[in-house]
Design goal:
The complex is a heterodimer of chains A (172) and B (291).
Chain A (H helix, E strand, L loop, with lengths): L1 H18 L15 H5 L1 H5 L5 H9 L3 H6 L11 H5 L6 H14 L5 H13 L7 H6 L13 H11 L13
Chain B lengths: L1 E6 L3 H5 L1 H13 L2 E4 L10 H6 L1 H17 L4 E3 L2 H16 L1 H11 L12 E3 H9 L1 H7 L8 E5 L2 H4 L2 H4 L9 H8 L3 E2 L18 H17 L4 E4 L2 H18 L7 E3 H8 L17 H6 L2
Parallel strand pairs in B: 1-2, 1-3, 3-4, 5-6, 5-7, 7-8
Helix pairs in contact in B: 2-14, 4-5, 4-6, 5-6, 7-8, 12-13
Classes of the chains: A mainly alpha (172), B alpha/beta (291).
């Protein structure tokens, strides 16, 4: 009896963390019908990702499995599931919320550390090649305007984005 | 002349000059003035939202603030930029509490989001500012023998509750704009399914499998080319075919065009001025079908 109660507390604690985050608010509306899984282009081709399963594990309080696993990073963000969910669970946004929590806990795939580094250093996540920048006049394109990277850094200092583990693209 | 702040994003200037050249040339020809504002940044697309949604929302709002200061609505070329900015604009206009939180963050960068401007994809500008009739009048080439497999990309349509662009399950705006140019927009299997672009770099095998499905299905349907709106879909499907050749030893040679290129060609702009040499899969077969 006591054990059951403790388990419930753990479940509750993790779903509270999720629902209190931007994007995660609707997770508890899920009744596990599987419409998301049958709409998911990724789940069709690999068993590594199933949105219904990610939500189920999250609601069961399997925090470590969800946050340190591979599945949450395999959502292709197409929003098909979210469009079709009969319970209006914002599934793609829930996945973002789970990724945000994972990042905060230090579980961040290398490619995402590279995105963070590019954004903080350059204000863009895709670097502009010097070759193409030089070629712009020949192509009839105006020169590129300066990027507001200083303003972004002021934003990051408030949201804590500058604390995210960064990695240089060359290092990976 | 209708003016817009052009939100160029990262991928287009970084990798796809043919998209930018064709879009600037075609839109200017149709009487749309594109204004390049200083200090714009990354739009905060899904990779940034994956790191921190609140930061992503704040970045999008910051960029919208720049347009508000210039008293211009925003037009995007990239579907990803459209999604990030239009979604943030809608969320912040609808939710006072969220707007207050984001403005608290933006105040450190000396900005305040008002919610006074619109974010549009350039298809909406073609549809509403130029209009199908005037667009048709400006077409000077014959595209009637061209069979086009359209692929709008997910983020033009979804999440539809915020983007309100078109019917997310039965969209027609993009196909209509292809047919306005005189080409035939054809049906193919899994037309609305994701190309897998955002999985590139994390799960390349899954991304390539999704892109391959798209190339196989458009080939089977007899398309002369795929026409896209999103630079990431373009990359996934164009460069993707080079990877399909090395990975699966399959060669499709399916040309992939940006809609802006098809538009520029239909308007009679000289193909040699469109930087088409940046395509991995050559587009001669398409040019040959345009009379």
């Amino acid at each position: 009896m006591k054990q059951g109660k403790e388990e419930k507390t753990t479940n509750q604690a993790f779903s509270d963390v999720i629902t209190s985050r931007l994007g995660g608010e609707t997770i508890t509306l899920c009744y596990q019908c599987g419409t998301c899984a049958s709409s998911c282009p990724v789940a069709r081709i690999t068993p590594r990702f199933n949105p219904r399963e990610v939500i189920k594990l999250s609601l069961l309080g399997e925090k470590d499995e969800v946050l340190s696993g591979d599945a949450i990073w395999l959502c292709c963000s197409c929003y098909n599931c979210q469009e079709r969910c009969p319970q209006k669970v914002e599934i793609a946004d829930v996945i973002y919320a789970l990724r945000n929590i994972a990042v905060k806990e230090g579980n961040i795939p290398n490619i995402y550390s590279e995105f963070a580094a590019e954004l903080i250093n350059e204000g863009r996540i895709v670097p502009i090649s010097k070759f193409l920048e030089k070629k712009r006049p020949d192509l009839g394109l105006p020169s590129l305007k300066p990027v507001g990277v200083d303003a972004l850094r002021k934003i990051f200092s408030i949201t804590g984005f500058d604390k995210i583990k960064q990695e240089k693209a060359e290092a990976s | 002349m209708t003016s817009y702040a052009l939100f160029l994003g990262c991928t287009i200037p970084a990798r796809q000059p043919s998209y930018e050249v064709s879009a600037r040339r075609a839109l200017t020809k149709l009487g749309i003035e594109l204004v390049d504002l200083a200090n714009m940044t990354c739009c905060a697309p899904p990779p940034v939202q994956s790191l921190d949604l609140e930061t992503g929302l704040s970045i999008a709002a910051y960029n919208i603030c720049l347009a508000e200061e210039a008293d211009l609505n925003i037009v995007t070329l990239c579907t990803g930029c459209f999604e990030s900015l239009a979604m943030a604009n809608a969320m912040l206009k609808e939710n006072e509490k969220l707007k207050a939180r984001v403005n608290q963050i933006l105040s450190n960068a000396g900005k305040e989001f008002e919610g006074s401007k619109e974010v549009k994809h350039y298809l909406q500008v073609l549809l509403n500012d130029v209009g199908p009739n005037r667009l048709k009048e400006n077409v000077s080439k014959n595209l009637s023998s061209l069979k086009v497999a359209s692929f709008s990309g997910c983020h033009l349509l979804r999440p539809s509750a915020l983007l309100k662009f078109d019917d997310p399950e039965k969209p027609y705006i993009f196909d209509d704009l292809i047919e306005t140019l005189g080409a035939k927009s054809i049906w193919y299997r899994h037309k609305l399914k994701c190309c897998g672009g955002l999985l590139r770099g994390y799960a390349d095998d899954v991304a390539l499998a999704l892109a391959r499905e798209k190339i196989v299905n458009t080939t089977k349907a007899g398309a002369d080319c795929i026409v896209t709106l999103c630079p990431f879909c373009f990359l996934t499907l164009d460069l993707g075919q080079v990877l399909m050749k090395s990975t699966f030893h399959e060669e499709y040679n399916m040309p992939v065009l940006h809609y802006s290129e098809l538009l520029a060609l239909a308007l009679g702009i000289d193909p040699t001025e469109l930087a088409l040499q940046f395509h991995k899969i050559k587009v001669y077969s398409v040019l040959n079908k345009i009379g």
